[in-house]
Amino acid sequence: MARKKIREYDGKRLVTRHLKKRKGIKLGGAGTTDSSATAKAATAQVSSTKLKSASSPKSFYSALSEEHPWLLNTKLVVKPDMLFGKRGKNNLVLLNADYESAQQFIAERMGQEIDVSGIKGVLTTFLIEPFVPHEQEFYLCIQTVREGDRLSFGACGGIEIEENWDKVKSVVVPCGEPESASPIVREQHVYPLLADDGIPEHHKSTLADFITACFETYVELDMTLLEMNPLALDSSGLPTILDSRVELDSYASFKNAKVWGSDLEFPEPWGREKSEEERVVQAMDDKSGASLKLTVLNPHGRMWTMVAGGGASVIYADQVVQLGYGDELGNYAEYSGNPKEQETYLYARTLLDLVTHNADGGRRALLCGGGVANFSDIAATLGGLQQALTDFHGKLQMAKVKVFVRRGGPNYKAGLQLMRDLGNTLDIPIEVYGPDTNMTHIVSLGIRWIEEGY
Question: What residue ranges define each of the domains in the chain, with the CATH number in brackets?
Fold first, then answer.
């Protein structure tokens, strides 16, 4: 499972579209632009990319109002859609505005760098929705946990939810609960959440139906988080999603391409943008049957990893941190699934470009580790690394990089000998170890190499 956040704009469109398919479910206020089964969420997106692609901001907003006529005759809410919370507490929400004021609010903040909870980032995407008057705010959250799916609900939603967390009730729907057993979920799990004097009795049936439908949608769409804070009831007593957060299991994308929609994106977390090297590896991963991952943590780090296997990659990173070198860890990297030699070569080249960048006279270590492979040809995968090291041998020498290899599995002896010979040929320090050596032993060796150079 890989939990990935999506924008509120995409989350609301996705949830609204599927809730409307549920029998008897009606959404109010900002829920939809009409009552049909194909209704779209009344929400509009403004991004720096879309503004730049238009001939002018005026033409963009004119086209946007043609697509969403309610923008011209409805009071509006405007807020950033950048995967961070507490927008209200940070004065980043405009309420009860007209379309002109909404445009001005966005223009004043688009491209601005702001600090949210100690993380700086640039505002590039905003959301515009109808303003919905309401009297009471609720909190709803469905989240995947080890025991199953946890449902939480409280009559105390809004920006003060953390101060009222003791008023939120939670139940866990055990793993394996049939999705079709809606009456069971409704009666055994949802109704107990509504046993609160703060919830009007005449609204409990509507809320129970809505929460049950949300749970069904959550399961159907392979969500890992669905949070509505606040959730409200409009003047007609219909559920209205005011603010929401959605996370999806990205590993389920192979079966959900149609239901999620082809235009769904998984943005980077707030304050982070993919580097060129990360984008290159992402493109390789998208086209490969193997797994190729790269995250740059510290471009100026002295400890770098190229690890075979997802589990092993985490173990190596943990060991570096445990030994006090977390600040020097340059990256998280993982390749697995028996990549082709050419794929390993291109992957290693991309990584080595980072490892050797801006040589400053200090030593650096590259840990090429992994467990004992079941089916990957070690000689073949190390062959790709060998080609990349050959291409970069001059830069490796200038950056004082020492390579530490620890691998095991099919044909590992030939692969290790290949690396040993390569070090002698290129005159770069390479140490190799097989499965008889503790997997993380090369971490301490890498640290020693770096420290002896001070």
Answer: 137-260 (3.30.470.20), 276-451 (3.40.50.261)
